[in-house]
Specification:
heterodimer, A: 282 residues, alpha+beta, Uridine Diphospho-n-acetylenolpyruvylglucosamine Reductase, domain 2, Uridine Diphospho-n-acetylenolpyruvylglucosamine Reductase, domain 3, Enolase-like, domain 1, five-stranded antiparallel β-sheet, 12 helices, 24% strand, B: 777 residues, Aldehyde Oxidoreductase, domain 3, Aldehyde Oxidoreductase, domain 4, 3 domains, eight-stranded mixed β-sheet, globular
């Protein structure tokens, strides 16, 4: 049970949502955008999320869009993960999100919520980071479309009150060779020990990580090392992991040393899968 | 007729339609709600509790904190204040309860209670507890009230020590040509029942105390509340509706006491205490941890000659069932083998962990993990197949147990037959280590199991049967339906006896201690045995009464009659009969005269010849019979990553007699799943200060559907003469060999000794790369 009271608002356009946010904020209500609600419920219960007003964005048409046209895949931020997974328009994304939480939760967790929420794994962002995805953001001064990578630093860095409405990936990325794997402490349910996604574009491997540190990331330095084909895979991986952000996570899922062990093996699998004569879809 | 059939549970339709009601589903307009404030520290002095702000908060009726005059509680040792007083002894311990009009208001106000602590050094494991420099968890251990058969050691952290001294160890070691010694450890974990624990209490103006609880022990609540608060037992009425999974976690009395104190603080109004998941995981009692050393001696051809066993159970901050669990561990300390010379010390120790209570298997999965793992270590040293070593030493009729009970063909099942069947099912002869490719291997491992119950020697069970006007029967038993389907099996036993359709038996699911006869506790896989015998006795009484009444109608002697198929029939002339429906409420003669009245019957049961254990040698008869079995696991193991997948899990159990086939299968498979979860993933992770880092289902992950292996379950049927239809206990047994089987198969696959739980890949990696083991094999 959530111990605090909060007001509920439902917006029908992004502009309305943004305006609501501003006015609620001015009233000191600490508003939050609400789509799936899984974090508001489960963290709110523990008071790790606090708000006096939620703004439901599920009714905003553009946040529910899912279409592939004019060579781009447009994905609304309020789409439940299950829906994206089942449509399977972007196989790397589908596979990666199919490992988040469990089926029941994925019916509620949304794409935007996974990216912008409090739980830091944000695994849905991994394919988007390596697929040069754009984000559409509605704010006080209107709407802007910019590369996700340009605003992603541990999390999407939005201005206060901005609403992430859509993610747009160019269609030529959708069919690229890919690899996605989630390694857990044990078996098939739970947070990641590490999650790694990879794409191969124009002969170069791109890779992004979650669980390794307290935030997801993509690193050009790491990619450079991994793509340095003058060296053998083991040496490339050894060099790549020198560029991991610090510190390596140390929590109930596993120790930093073990994470590195798993990471090295996983990177070996990435190289094998994407550099082999035939590439495997995991 | 119905015995053995897969009869649907009587409460199935309610459950699958979501209409089944559990304790928290019952509300009344007058009901208030309590929210607990729990300790963030594992061991600390309570310097002050400021409740002023909370008292002023909207909707708040009272705030209850620990008081010197509150009784100390506990089933064996009275060591636990119902709400912490003076100091806290575990992370999650209740320090106050806020009672308000709604749960939301209570929760809001709970944030306003300010507690200041001064932290104390922490006892973070059983071995730390035993070190001479250990802080004392209970400074006044010597002064606590206790039952006669528990022996706390004052000025230590030892709550109880049970000794087994069988045979002569000196001779045992002399005859041993080969010895192995191995150390084991695992920490506490959770039951993780779907329904979190909940209790309500109300004090009526006439002094009656109404308690409702999600409990396995409503009659024990009545007894203990009467004892703790000096109340008339007859004035305490406990009800228990359906229980959504218990697994031992709902044996203890905890929230009921807080609910009663809360009700008292608000003038007797009903108060509900409901655990949120986090509280259910650490505030309410947990699954016990263990450190163990097992030393075995055998001849070169694998005959066991001596076993020296040292078990130290991590009972956490309070003893609750910890001492009883340590006793049960001593009773079954060796696994199902005949060994002439046994030395065992089984200790229940206090630590600053959440306190332990019963957990499905009651010490057996824990002890078997240590013992059965050592059997594999010995087999390896002997160069012997694990099956062969177990077959060679299997316990049989004619042997004695560690507590020197004489076994016969009734009180122990057929272990060799279970082993034979398991070996065949697992295709053991094809090899237990098969290389699939450069990285993957397939491996197999096994464990034997046995279990008896160590319940109170005078535990009893009663049943009342009443007729309805249509000739159908009502069955009233104090057994709690905790999800095992036992109440349906009771209906089957009654249907069989009365030769009637099981659909004509109405089983009262909810327990009410005022109107239903006592069933001691719904524990120890003893429901069917105890209540089943009571049902059979009641049915005999019923049949006697029916014959008596029918003899007047049919004008013959009662012993010339037979009951069945809704009728009482004249044996040698079946054309002459009367309908039970016509005599169930007595008989009316044509002239209007009537005799009899509603027919009702009762039956009761108590075990015979149970004894306490001798304090010095442990000899005694703690339980009526031993269920035995053999279990196995087959995995695919990745030798590079140390990850694994369980492909198949096997159980062959001698259940005496299968009473409800699908029910028995479900019990065994569910228990196996739980055992795999406990062995493979579930454990609380503590920091150095004894704080639980994963008291949430986000990070404490029980097995999920889809992660399960293929379950292969077969039964052997060697009847236990005293039990209804010969059936042996089966509720827990599927669990108890799983941890050992998993540790054995992984040790085999990885080529190392894995003697800790949970068996996560990181543990295997650690031992593989750092060789963290301390065994002298």
């Amino acid at each position: 049970m959530i111990p605090y009271d909060f007001a509920y608002f439902k917006a029908s356009t992004a502009e309305e949502a943004v305006e609501l946010y501003q006015s609620l904020r001015e009233q000191g209500k600490q508003p939050v955008y609400y789509a799936g609600g899984t974090e508001i419920i489960t963290l709110g219960r523990m008071k790790e999320v606090y708000t006096e007003a939620v703004i439901d964005i599920k009714g905003i048409t553009e946040c529910q869009t899912l279409q592939l046209e004019q060579n781009q895949l447009v994905m609304g931020a309020a789409l439940p993960l299950t829906k994206l997974q089942e449509a399977n328009l972007f196989p790397l994304l589908s596979q990666t999100i199919s490992e988040i939480a469990d089926h029941t939760a994925r019916n509620k967790i949304t794409l935007g919520g996974n990216l912008c929420g409090n739980i830091y794994y944000r695994e849905a962002v991994l394919p988007l980071l390596i697929a040069d995805t754009d984000v559409v953001i509605a704010g006080k001064s209107g709407r802007r479309r910019i590369p996700l990578n340009s605003i992603f630093d541990e999390r999407p860095c939005l201005e206060d009150g901005e609403l992430l409405t859509q993610l747009i990936t160019q269609s030529d990325y959708l069919g690229l060779p890919y690899y996605s794997v989630k390694k857990r402490r044990q078996w098939d349910v739970g947070y990641p020990l590490i999650t790694v996604t990879a794409l191969k574009k124009e002969g170069k491997i791109r890779v992004s990580f979650s669980g390794v540190c307290l935030f997801p990331f993509r690193s050009e330095r790491i990619e450079e090392c991994l793509n340095d084909t003058r060296l053998n895979p083991d040496d490339r991986i050894e060099r790549a992991i020198q560029h991991l952000p610090k510190p390596i996570s140390n929590d109930v899922e596993g120790s930093p040393e073990y994470r590195l062990f798993v990471l090295k093996n996983t990177l070996l699998d990435v190289l094998q899968a994407l550099e082999g004569e035939t590439y495997a879809h995991n | 007729m119905t015995i053995g059939d897969s009869i649907f549970r009587k409460e199935a339709l309610e459950k699958v339609t979501g209409t089944a009601k559990y304790t928290d589903d019952y509300h009344s307009p007058a009901m208030l709600h309590a929210k607990l404030i729990v300790s963030p520290h594992a061991h600390a002095k309570i310097k002050s509790i400021d409740i002023l702000e909370a008292q002023k908060a909207p909707g708040v009726r009272a705030v209850v904190t620990g008081q010197a005059e509150f009784p100390l509680t506990g089933e064996e040792i009275h060591d636990r204040p119902p709400i912490a007083f003076g100091k806290v002894r575990y992370h999650g311990e209740p320090v106050a309860a806020v009672i308000a009009d709604t749960l939301q208001l209570a929760k809001k106000a709970a944030e306003l209670v300010k507690v200041t602590y001064e932290s104390l050094p922490v006892v973070n494991s059983p071995s730390e507890a035993l070190s001479t420099s250990a802080p004392l968890v209970h400074e006044n251990l010597g002064q606590y009230e206790k039952i006669q058969h528990v022996f706390p050691e004052p000025n230590t952290n030892i709550a109880d020590r049970i000794k087994i001294r069988k045979g002569n160890m000196e001779i045992g070691w002399q005859e041993s040509e080969v010895t192995v010694e191995t150390n084991f450890s695992f920490g506490p974990s959770d039951h993780a029942a779907m329904e979190t624990r909940c209790a309500t209490a109300e004090i009526r103006p006439d002094g009656h105390i109404l308690i409702s609880s999600s409990s396995q022990s409503p009659y024990m609540i009545k007894k203990l509340m009467s004892e703790y608060f000096d109340l008339e037992a007859g004035k305490i009425i406990v009800t228990t509706p359906l229980v959504g999974g218990a697994y031992g976690g709902k044996v203890p009395t905890q929230l009921e006491i807080i609910a009663y104190l809360a009700s008292k603080a608000v003038g007797g109004r009903p108060v509900k205490v409901f655990n949120e998941r986090e509280e259910d995981m650490i505030t309410s009692p947990v699954h016990i941890g263990l450190e163990a050393t097992v030393k075995l001696g055998s001849t070169r051809d694998g005959k066991l000659k001596a076993a020296k066993l040292f078990y130290t159970f991590d009972s956490g901050a309070y003893s609750d069932k910890g001492a009883t669990i340590s006793r049960a561990a001593a009773v079954s300390c060796t696994g199902p083998y005949f060994i002439e010379n046994i030395w065992c010390d089984s200790l229940c120790v206090y630590t600053n962990h959440p306190y332990a209570t019963a957990y499905r298997g009651f010490s057996h999965s824990e002890v078997l993990f240590a013992f059965e793992r050592t059997m594999d270590v010995l087999a390896e040293k002997l160069g012997m197949d694990p099956f062969e070593l177990r077959e060679k030493n299997a316990i049989l009729p004619g042997h004695t147990t560690p507590t020197e009970v004489d076994l016969n063909s009734s009180n122990v099942g057929n272990l060799p037959e279970c082993l034979r069947k398991l070996k065949e099912l697992m295709k053991w002869d094809e090899g237990r280590f098969i290389k699939i490719n450069d990285r993957k291997v397939r491996a197999k491992g096994i464990s034997c199991i046995w279990k008896t119950s160590t319940i109170d020697t005078n535990a009893s069970s009663g049943v009342i049967l009443t007729y309805n006007p249509d000739g159908s029967l009502n069955l009233l038993s104090g057994l709690v339906e905790i999800g095992t389907g036992t109440k349906t099996v009771l209906a089957q036993i009654l249907a069989e006896k009365m030769k009637m359709d099981v659909s004509q038996i109405h089983v009262r699911m909810e327990v009410d201690t005022q109107t239903m006869p006592e069933h001691w506790k719904t524990v120890a896989s003893r429901g069917t045995y105890m209540a089943g015998r009571a049902v059979q006795q009641a049915a005999d009484d019923l049949i006697r009464q029916l014959k008596d009444m029918a003899s007047r109608v049919l004008v013959c002697s009662p012993d010339e009659l037979e009951v069945g198929y809704g009728k009482v029939i004249v044996k040698d002339d079946p054309t002459k009969s009367c309908m039970i429906a016509d005599i169930a409420y007595g008989h009316k003669y044509p002239n209007g005269n009537a005799i009899g009245g509603q027919i009702m019957a009762n039956g009761k049961f108590m075990f015979k010849h149970m004894t306490h254990l001798d304090r010095e040698t442990g000899s005694g008869k703690p339980g009526p019979e031993w269920t035995v079995g053999a279990q196995g696991i087959e995995i695919e193991f990745d030798t590079r990553d140390f990850t694994y997948r369980i492909l198949k899990a096997y159980s062959v159990i001698d259940v005496g007699k299968v009473l409800n086939y699908k029910g028995a299968l479900g019990q065994v498979m569910g228990a196996m799943s739980m055992g795999i979860g406990f062995a493979g993933r579930e454990a609380f992770i503590f920091d150095r200060k004894g704080k639980v880092l994963n008291p949430q289902l986000r990070t404490y992950v029980p097995p999920h559907y889809g992660e399960h292996p293929e379950y292969i379950v077969e039964f052997v049927e060697t009847p236990h003469i005293d039990a209804p239809h010969g059936a042996r206990g089966i509720g827990e047994h599927g669990l108890i060999g799983m941890p050992a089987a998993l540790a054995n198969v992984l040790s085999n696959a990885a080529g190392i000794n894995l003697n800790q739980l949970p068996l996560v890949p990181e543990l295997i990696w650690k031992i593989k790369t750092q060789g963290v083991q301390n065994d002298s094999v």
